[in-house]
Amino acid sequence: MTQVPPHRTAERASVWGVLLLIMSDTHLPMRAKDLPAPLWMMVDEADVVVHAGDWVDVDLLDRLEARSRRLVGVYGNNDGPALRARLPEVARETLDGVRLAVVHETGQATGREARCAATFPDTDVLVFGHSHIPWDTTAPGGLRLLNPGSPTDRRRQPHHTFMTAEITDGALTAVALHRLDPTGS
């Protein structure tokens, strides 16, 4: 398991760049009662929290909005009218020069890079969810595709997961997949 940056202070922000916390497919309260404690600690540390859909309950959106410095999120296929009223299908942000897009579904794995590069031509990083399978690839042309898996519903994966990444000097750096043990730590 990779190490996350130490507690972020104003002095450390310039050293570390923009810290992203990336999650998806939380399915609360269906798959878990709450997010694992280490994930909540990372919410407190991150400059930007990214959620790629399948929240299931609006309570998590409310809590992440209240606790995050900045939240970028989309709705997923399991999200009902209350979440769809507050979240877009596709979110786009430019963070320190990096053009980020977030969407829940990208279709089947076969051909994903080419399909997403064609669909998101003006994007540097595409975060997606839906499959609960961690994914980190780069499409021809440079589009980086990231799926953090799920911190609460691993399905057939060996671990519950989430990702962190940094944006430093206008580039995505230090992308890391983090595993959570069965107790959530």
What is the rounded Rg? Answer: 15 Å
Q: Would you give the CATH topology?
A: Purple Acid Phosphatase, chain A, domain 2
Number of E-type strands: 10
Gross morphology is: globular
Q: What is the name of the CATH class?
A: Alpha Beta
CATH architecture: 4-Layer Sandwich
Strand content: 25-35%
Largest sheet: 5 strands, mixed
Q: Unreliable runs, pLDDT <50, ≥5 residues? A: 1-7
How many separate domains make up the residues?
1
Alpha plus pi helix count: 5
Order of helices and strands: HEHEHEHEEHEEEEE
Amino- and carboxy-terminal Cα gap: 11 Å
Task: State the helicity in percent bands.
Answer: 10-25%
Name given to the CATH homologous superfamily: Metallo-dependent phosphatases
- Output the strand order for the largest sheet: 3-2-1-9-10
Query: Structural class given helices, strands, pairing?
Result: alpha/beta
GO molecular function, one term: metal ion binding
Protein name: Phosphoesterase
Keywords: Metal-binding
Cofactor: a divalent metal cation
Topology (SSEs and partners):
Elements: H1 10-16, E1 18-23, H2 37-45, E2 48-51, H3 58-67, E3 71-73, H4 81-86, E4 90-95, E5 98-103, H5 112-119, E6 125-127, E7 135-138, E8 144-147, E9 160-168, E10 171-180
Parallel strand pairs: 1-2, 2-3, 5-6, 6-8
Antiparallel strand pairs: 1-9, 4-5, 7-8, 9-10
In short:
The protein is α/β, with parallel strands linked by helices.
